[in-house]
Every structure is written in C-alpha cells, then in structure tokens.
Amino acid sequence: MPDSLNLGCIFSDHLGQNRKALIDLAEGQERTLTFDELDHLANGVARGLRKHNLKPGDRVGVLALNRLEYLAVFFGAMRSGLVPAPINIKLSPDMISYILEDAGCKLIFAEAEFAHLTPKTIPIVHFGKEFDDFVDFGRFDPFIPAADTVALQPYTSGSTGKPKGVLLSHSGQMWGPTTANWAKPESTFLVAAPLYHKNALMVTKTAFAKGARIVLMPRFDAKTYIQAIEDYRPETISGVPAMISMLMLEKSALKHTDLTSVREVSMGSALAAPLLIRQVQETFNNPKITIQYGVTEGGPRMFGDHPDSIPRPIGSCGYPLSGGETKLVENPKNPMDPGGPLTGELWVRNPGVMLGYHNLAEATAAKLPGGGWFRTGDILRRDSDGFYWFVSRMDDMFNCGGENVYPAEVEAILEKHPAVAQSAVVSVPHKVKGEAPVAFVVLASENAASEDDLRRFALENGPAYAHPRMVFFIDALPLASTNKIDRKSLESKARILAAELSGNKPLN
Is the peptide bond preceding residue 332 cis, with omega within 30 degrees of 0? Predict the structure, then answer.
C-alpha cells in the first residue's frame, strides 16, 4: 500500500529505485520517465496549481490524447487536493462545454488541436511550452484527504442522455489497484485505450501501484500497436474487444512480428466473441485471456482471480475481489438464461463505489439504494465455483411481442457460428411486435454464411422471439469514442435499411 493516502501518490513505494515507470510514444518520439522523474513532474504540476491560486476541491479539465503530461496533471492535481476531470476528446463542442461548466472547472489542460473545443471563459494551459512554463519544480507535501474526499471526477459516456460526473474518492480508488494481483513489478503493459476511459486508467493505476512499466500510445492504431509489441516486449496487452479484433485483421503484420513476449491479453468493457478468443489464442501462442468487467461508478473493477487458485474459465469476469461484496438481484429476471437466483442485476459494495453523481441527487439515489450498495444496471450470472459471467446491459434490453430481448445474448448465439467474427444486435420498429431484433455481422475472412444461414442458426440455438429478423453484413462495426461498438449509429442505420427492405411492411 502506498505510504500516502492520496491517490496522486499511488506509486510512492517505488521511488528511489531507478525503476522505469513510463515510455511515452506521443508526438512520434520516445520519452522515458522513471518513477522518480514522474514524481518530480507531478510535484511540479501540484506546485504550479497552488501558485495559480487553485485550492483543494477545485476542478481542472484535461482534454488530450494519451501522453505523459496527461498523467502528470492527473497525479499532480490530486496531490494538490484538486479534482481532475478527464474529458472525452471525441464529444461535440457543446457536450465538452457542458462537462466543463457542470464540473465548474477553474482551469483546462489541453493539446492545441483540441483547444478550440473549450469555452473561452475558462483559462487554458496548452501542452508544450505553456505547460513547461506552468510547472514549478520543487518539493511538495501532498494534500491529506479524508475518507470521503473526492479524488477525480470522470464523466459517463452520456449514451442515455447528458454525461454525469462520477465522484470517486482517494481511498476508494486505491482499493482496486492495490488489491489486484495480476500486475507484477517486472511487467510491462502496452496501453492505447484513452486515459479518459476507465479501462486505460485502471490499468495504469494498477501497474503503477505494483511498480510495473507502462508503454503509452497516444491513440490506438492496429499496425503501430503491433510494432510496439515487438519494440517494447510487453507481457500484457489490454483494451476493449473491438481493438483486439482490429489487431486480428492485420494478419500480415502479425505474421512478421515477434509476439512471444505477450503472456496475457486483457479485454474489458464488452463481450469477446468465441472466434476472437480462438484467434487470440492461436496468434499469441495460447496466452492467458482475461475478461475484465468494470463500471466507473462501482469500483471500477470488482473481480479478479479465485483466492483458492481455481482457474478462471475463459469468458468469465472473474471472482469477487477481497474486500468487496456482490449480489445478484432477480429483478428483472433474464428470460434467455433462467438461472434462478444465480442470474440477476449485479449489485456491488466495495470501497471504490462512487460517492455519488455531481449535483444529481435523484440519479444518485436511483443508483445508490442504501447500505453502501451500487446498482450496476447489468445482468450477470454466477456459476457453481463463484465466478461471474456478463449477460447483458439492462439499458440495451428491448421488448419484442411481450418478451424481453437482451442484445448481448443474441450476439453470443450468432458468434458461435464459425463464419461470424463480430456481431451487434439492435432493435427496429415492428408494426405487430413493437420492436424486433436485427443484426449487423462481420464475417470471418476464411468462412462464409448467408442471411438465411444466420437467421436459421439463431432460431436453432435460441428462443424464436429473439432471432434477428434481418441480418446486414458490414466490413467492420463502428466504434464510439470509448472504442466500444457504436450502437446508436447502428440503430439509426438499421431503421433506414429495414424500412427500405420491407417497404414499410411488417417484418416477420
């Protein structure tokens, strides 16, 4: 456990050892920092913030691609008692302005190419010379937080409305990284997912807490990522399944690259198709495949390996981490997997659960029903060994003729077909049933299937009401700003295509 309770000092145990912390690949060059150098830079940011009269509790926005300065602001702001608000660079200017104003940011750190997205009423520090001038190097004694002191304020994606600021505490966000046992001091992690998303932030905090090294790419590019595997020899690569799928498409680059360093492939934020898992096993010589489950408001990570060393089944989210509690609430019950009390909405209680949503008392009450529990809004099931398995998001569920359809369940069925590499199921209006499922499918290059093949396969392997009424073949699934599948754009596209093909007649 770090010798400071401030999350900004999470790597303090590894100072004075000349250990490499970070290799930053931003701006087309390699910049390397030891933990001591990163500590020095974070202290410089903390001193600079105090010098500019910012005080504990003030919010600062960060709008940039991945880079070492991003992490320096992240850790330095928290050392000063300030609250960093990482912002999704792919949001619209109106939404970015909303977040900055909702958080009440007193200062923004940004790359020059994104500065025009910010309101002119908030002072801005551009990464580059301005940032170098802002930093005030020297000794800094970190702010000592209370148990309920807010450490950072990330914002939800806003897929069901405006983004919500999530209030996370210092002590709570220490829990997951220091409890996890999958990062070792000698490990190297390759990170290309955006730091404004929980996936990359959790990996980075966990690696630094254990003294491991991060190779940080500014953004994900499949070919560049593959080259980085050969150049930096990471033991662990991580990201969302869509990123790993894009890697698998680069067959020529993979074939001519030394991938032998990779011992673990960690995927989170979405389900991984069986074909993708098989491809990863073959490409990286049967590495450990870890499916991570996390919710920004709920830990964010609450599962890991079994304490009795029972092997984690491939596809499982894992076993509850020590110090946290989980339960499945059978409301609503998932009709596609009638597992009784072993299937339901996941509720979690652990030190990392959010303090609440910023200035949203009603939304907070809906998610925090009392007793320290957080409602995830996700349907999971638990097997006889206590491992948890993701089933579907409750928000994605729709009703077809009186039956609840969970898209992730239908996708799992489709992806068992040997010709299907990826799939996404959305709903379209249906004159009789209200809504009906349709599917977008990316075919595996070595196999082929027709629309009738896949509809029949779904009917044979799942309930009739849930089979996709139409199947649309596409080269790649569109990604949203967090590298997850962009379901909203697919839903819009599906409604147009379904109307054209059906001639506004009811689907079957």
Answer: yes
**pTM of the full predicted structure?**
0.84
Give the integer Cα–Cα distance in Å for 29 and 27.
Answer: 6
Cross-strand bridge partners of residue 436: 428
In contact, 387 and 317? CB cutoff 8 Å: yes
| Mean pLDDT in consecutive groups of 10 residues from the start of the chain, 508 residues | 81 94 90 97 98 96 96 98 94 90 96 90 95 97 94 79 92 86 83 89 92 94 94 90 85 90 84 81 89 89 89 89 90 46 87 96 95 92 91 80 81 88 87 85 82 92 89 85 76 82 53
Task: Find the helix packing angle between 407-414 and 451-461, rounded to 10°.
Answer: 110
What's the CA gap between 302 and 176, in Å, rounded? 7
User: SS in 3 state form for 383-415?
Assistant: CCCCCEEEEEEHHHCEEECCEEECHHHHHHHHC
Q: H or E segment at 242?
A: helix 241-249
**What is the CB-side half-sphere exposure of residue 54 using CA atoms within 13 A?**
28
- In degrees and rounded to multiples of 5, residue 366 shows phi and psi of -70, -30
